[in-house]
Structure formats: C-alpha cells, structure tokens
Predict the 3D structure of the following.
Amino acid sequence: MAGIADVAARAGVSKATASRALTGSGYVSDATRARVRSAAVELGYVPSTSAVSLATGRTQNIGVVMPYVSRWFFAEVLEGIQGALLERGLDLTLYDAKPGTPGRARIFEDFLARKRFDGLIAVGLEPQDHELERLLAIGRPLVSVVGAGGESSLVTIDDEDAARLATEHLLALGHTEIAFVGGGTGAHWATVDQQRLAGYRRSMSGAGLAAAARHVRSDVTLPGGYRAAVELLGDARERPTAIVAVCDEAAVGAIIAARRLGIRVPGDLSVVGIDDHEFAEMFSLTTLRQVPREQGAAAVEILLAEIADPGRPTTTTRLRARLVMRSSTSAVDATVDADTGLLRGAAPQ
C-alpha cells in the first residue's frame, strides 16, 4: 500500500508538504495541493486516521447519542448522519443511550468524557437529569436533532405547526369532534409530544372548539395508539369523528382498533398522523411528512461548521412538515345525531 513518502515522490514535493496538502493543516498553493491529491488518487493512497489526527489535532470522528436505534425515526436520522459523514470521509461512534438503563448513565459519566470525537450530535435528548448541560460541559461542539435544544444548535421540524396543519385539515372537512391521541405518559414527557398537543389545542381554540378538545394519553407506539383508541372509540355516544395522532405509529394503532370495532375509516372516523412513517402508505394514512434523513444530514453540516469555527453562534433550524393526502380522512358523515337532532359533527348554533 502506498505511503505518504510515495505520494510526495510522485508529486515532487517533501513529505511535510504532501501531508499539509492532504490534511489542510497548513498553507500549500492550490497548484501544489492539486498535484499532491492527484498523486494520492493515482497511487490509491488512504491516510490513516491516526496520521490525520496527529497533523490536525482532530479525531476525524463524530459521536452520535440517541435513545433508540431500532425505532423508525431514529434509524432514519442515523442514516442521514452516516451518509453525510461518509461523503466527507469521517468516522462515526454511536452511543445507544436507552432511557432508564445503567448503560445510559455509563455513557454520560464515562464514555463521553473520554472525548474521542470532534463533535457530538444528540438525537431526541430530553431536558432530564441535566444531560444537555453535561454534554455541553465536555467542551466539544454539539448539535441536537429534535429534543430540547437550548444552548446547542437544533435541527427539528416545527412540531406545533405540524399538529396545527393536521387539525385544520380535519376542521376543513367539517369535523368538530376531534380527539388528540398520544403523549403524556411517563416521568419525562417528550418536548415534541407537548408541542404537537399545543398545536392541536391552539387550532381547536381558534375554531371556537376549545371546550371540545380531548387528549387521550398513550405511549407513542403502535400498541399504545391501539390501546388508547380502543378506550376512546368503545363508547358510541362519546366517539369522536376524527383523531389527530401524535405520530404515525399511534395513528396506525388507532386505525387497527377502529377496524376491529367495526368502525369505518374514513367513513365513520378520520385519522391523521405526523411523520410519514414507512407504514403510512400501507395503511393509506393521511399524515404530515417530515424527512428524518434530511434532519440528520443538516445536523452534520451545522456541526462541521461549528467545528471549523468554534466561535460560530448556535442556530435553530425548523423544517416545515408537508401534508400528504391519502385515504384515512374524508368529510364528516352528514347524518343526524339521535340525541341532539344536529348533523353529526356540526357545531351547536
């Protein structure tokens, strides 16, 4: 395998000049840099990570901390991060920090403190146990993907706006009995879930339906959405005509529950999710699309800029979700309610 000496000889420069040209650690003319890089390509030279680290003072490695690896959103963000890093020849160290586990505590107390990375990307970090402050105290650039943000740069979608769009889509179809399913469980209620509930409530209030707003708590999973929907839809007298789910997994769970109860979707019940999960198309789910891979790639861009310029101010990037129409929503069924004499779903005059 060719070494730096071979590249230097092929390019007609010293080893020190060749090293500077390949690592960017010192001044080299554009013509010389181009000649050295051309020689490296011709010889198939690949600089070792340790050599680059010695020359630049950097590890060429980015740390990624996330609470789940197998769940759809986090896996998609990780794909985006990895793709962006591979394009730049950078390494990735993944820390799978599952909430409530001894491993999470060890990651924050031990592994991250070793600083074997040039910067960190924290995905879905909640403001619990002062973890954000502990990451910032490490002294490496930090970018958050969803979660708390705060003193670090943040990449996310506008979650409140996404829930607003979902709710207003149902309102435009004539629905007024709209429930919100998901979130509100556990000791640490996710910031994302709270923002989406706030968007739903704001839309209901803006439509003069604040008193009709209903929040059914559930885990943000398919089984969680199923259990919550069984409870919500079981009483025909209290049944809503539409559901805004905190995420697509909860929405799919609600659709399965409705079908098992003999409730037609969308004939009797309209359902909207948020995410555009890989299951959304399978269940013909109307949803608000976010693109997690783009969020991961954007986080890499911001982090590398902060590594290059440590004095760069932090930024917040809020991407806007887009409504994707499928067949889980329709206009409210215009049938007369036996108890009120009103069209079902119509607001009392």
